[in-house]
Design brief:
- By secondary structure, this protein is of the alpha/beta class.
- The chain is built from nine helices and twelve strands.
- The chain has a domain of 204 residues: 3-Layer(aba) Sandwich (Rossmann fold).
- It has a six-stranded parallel β-sheet, sandwiched between helices.
- Helix 1 links the parallel strand 1 and strand 2.
- Helix 1 packs across helix 6.
- The chain binds NADP nicotinamide-adenine-dinucleotide phosphate.
- NADP nicotinamide-adenine-dinucleotide phosphate binds next to helix 1 and strand 4.
Length: 294
């Protein structure tokens, strides 16, 4: 049986991985309570002690705006931890799957980003995630880095979909930015893609991948779709109108990429399957979340 060590087991993607990875091997799943990554002294030794065949890192500092005021912590979780995991993988002869982000790009392109497109993160979060990618690549050859984007799921903490459902229940009207385009991606689909990639990982297939759902949409259009689908499913909504606004009208501490669609061709080729369309996955997530939502 393959031994798998999963980090970030309580996160949106981590919780889905915890459910799917046992189909591939024996899983040890660590959340914050098992190992606080903010003080990573001893991380390498603790990982090596497990002698995993595969390390899957779903842990991250994901508070994009807060990262601007906590750059050291963001760097620790997003760059130092992956580096130590890659060093541990190298010393046990194991493989590492690490998750990264579309925010390594500046979003000034107007066609989907290929895996080798030039990176240029706009803020601390993106910089820390890029540093993590580079540290992994320096420390081992036996890695897969999977960049994803606009992640939401029924499990784990808040996300855009949950925020829209809450605001839609409270307000009559809402403004949502239309000048940022990307691909909403269901955490469940990311976990399925990672599980499908595991048996395919070898000298020919190590490297960088992009995985998102298919399609591209603005946050505004995504919000409209969320409300349409949620209404069909009977979520309580009092909202009557969604207004498209610009990023300038909704200032945040970190600038976001204006366009961050990722080209997923490489993974689609290796897995011999294309990712589900974002709207089909949104519908499935909303059905699942209906049972949890109060
Ligand atoms: N969310 C997005 O929109 C998005 C977009 C692109 C890429 N990604 C990438 O996708 C991956 C998964 O993201 P996600 O949305 O699943 O993130 P998430 O829900 O925020 O999960 C991250 C997990 O990391 C854990 N973590 C953070 N600091 C820790 C610490 N000091 N010690 C131990 N654990 C710690 C968190 O623990 P707690 O639960 O205890 O806080 C959380 O469970 C990440 O690599 C992220 O960068 C996410």
């Amino acid at each position: 049986m393959m031994k798998i060590l999963l980090l970030g087991a309580q996160g949106q993607v981590g919780q889905e991985l915890k459910l799917v990875l046992p189909s591939l091997g024996t899983v040890t799943a660590w959340g914050r309570a098992d190992f606080d990554l903010a003080t990573s002294g001893g991380l390498m030794a603790a990982v090596v002690e497990q002698q995993p065949d595969l390390i899957v890192n779903a842990a991250a500092y994901t508070a994009v705006d807060r990262a601007e005021s906590e750059p050291e912590l963001a760097h620790q979780i997003n760059a130092v931890v992956p580096e130590q995991l890659a060093q541990a993988a190298e010393s046990c002869g194991s493989k590492l799957i690490h998750i990264s982000t579309d925010y390594v790009f500046d979003g000034r392109q107007n066609r989907p980003y290929q895996i080798d497109a030039a990176t240029n993160p706009l803020g601390v979060y993106g910089q820390s995630k890029l540093a993590g990618e580079q540290a992994v690549q320096r420390a081992t050859d036996r890695y897969a880095i999977l960049r994803t984007a606009w992640v939401y799921g029924a499990k784990g903490k808040g996300n855009f979909v949950k925020t829209m459902l809450r605001l839609g229940a409270e307000r009559d009207e809402l403004g949502v930015v239309y000048d940022q385009v990307g691909t909403p991606t269901w955490a469940y689909d990311i976990a399925q893609a990672i599980a499908a990639l595991v048996p395919q990982l070898n000298e020919q297939t190590f490297g960088i991948y992009h995985y998102t759902n298919s399609g591209a949409v603005s946050w505004y259009d995504f919000a409209v779709a969320i409300f349409e689908e949620a209404r069909t499913l009977g979520y309580p909504l009092q909202l009557s109108s969604v207004r498209p606004i610009t990023s300038e009208q909704y200032p945040t501490p970190t600038e976001r990429p204006a366009y961050s669609v990722l080209a997923g061709d490489r993974l689609a080729r290796v897995l011999n399957q294309t990712a589900p369309h974002w709207r089909a996955s949104l519908r499935k997530m909303l059905k699942e979340y209906l049972n949890i939502y109060k």
